[in-house]
Amino acid sequence: MPSIVRSVVDYDIGMIRVFVLVYETASATATAERLFISQPSVSYTLRRLRNLFNDPLFLRRGNRLEPTPIAEDLYPRLRQLIESMDEVMSHASRFRPEESTRTFRLRLTDVGVTGLLPRILHRIRTEAPHVVLDVGALTFSTVVRELRSGQADAVICATRLDAPDLLREPLFTQAYVGVCAPDHPRIGATPTLAEFEFEQHVGVAGESGHRSYDLRIGELGIDRKVALVIPSFSGLPAVLAGTELLSFAPSSAAQRFESNGLLRVFALPFDVPISESALYTVRRELPSTEFDWFRRSLIEALR
After folding, report:
1. pLDDT above 50 for 62
2. What does the pLDDT average to over 239-247?
3. Any idea where the HTH lysR-type domain is (predicted)?
């Protein structure tokens, strides 16, 4: 991080808020609207920030202001600084779950929505009946930035998110199994590798968060004939019904499909590493009562 900032008289909290919002919105206009100030005021503040850090900070790409590497480095720390100050000023240490109407933002895969969300919702509403839980689809290409920008407070997934400013807390493990239509004419409970390779398959896109299955097939050189790729596991029952296609799923989701008579589970004829799902949040320099409560609630609901 640059050591250009000369003294506290060179900056104020308003400048930091402008920086954070420009980063999050990629727009001087949107920043001005959010802060109820004029666009020239935002431009003036950006010039002061650029002088302080001796860096452009944001470069225009079409109609967006894209952060420079120095701005990327500054953002997580400045955002946490803003949050910490806001918490102090709003007496966040007095957070009371039973009275709170705060919105917490969680990102889950489709398997997480169907398999984990009911347990999470029960745990949250038992202690904080007025809290709002905003659950969004997990997109791996943007999820780290969503966490850093505050668009997401927490993420639960099996794919490992390697970033030094993220806190990872393992929750549970599960295996992968094969799935097919209940009346598939050739696939039994324990098919051979030759039988597996003979059939055509439905793949599930990497954005689903379960990539180890595809990676393992590639490592072993297995001949998997993929006829279709779908974006999530939730579509498997409808897609596989009435076909002779095969696919895979985490064991928890597969067992739910089978118990409802939608699919049949079979053992894969090769080993796939056990999947470990974890909770990801942004590391905080200072404690936050409300975020600590939310993180603890998620862990207690799922472990």
Report:
1. yes
2. 97
3. 16-68
Question: What rounded mean pLDDT belongs to the chain?
Answer: 90
| Domain 176-273, architecture per CATH | 3-Layer(aba) Sandwich (3.40)
CB within 8 Å of 255: residues ≥ 6 apart: 265
Quote the CATH superfamily of domain 92-172+276-302.
Periplasmic binding protein-like II (3.40.190.10)
CA nearest neighbour of 69 among 10, 2, 3, 12: 2
pLDDT of 4 above 50: no
Helices (H), the chain: 13-25, 28-35, 39-53, 69-89, 110-115, 117-127, 143-149, 193-198, 212-220, 236-240, 251-259, 289-302
Cβ neighbours for 57, distance < 8 A, ≥ 6 positions apart: 19, 46, 49, 50, 67, 68, 70, 71, 74
Q: 216 is written with which tokens? A: 């393992």
Distance CA 194, CA 208 (A): 27
Q: For domain 8-89, which CATH number applies: 2.60.120.620, 1.10.10.10, 3.40.30.10, 3.30.70.1350?
A: 1.10.10.10
Residue 187 has pLDDT above 80, yes or no: yes
Domain boundaries, the chain: 8-89, 92-172+276-302, 176-273
Q: Would you tell me how many other CB atoms lie within 10 Å of the CB of residue 190?
A: 11
Please report how many Cα atoms fall inside a 13 Å half-sphere around the Cα of residue 7, on the Cβ side.
1
Taking the model in full, what pTM does it have?
0.75
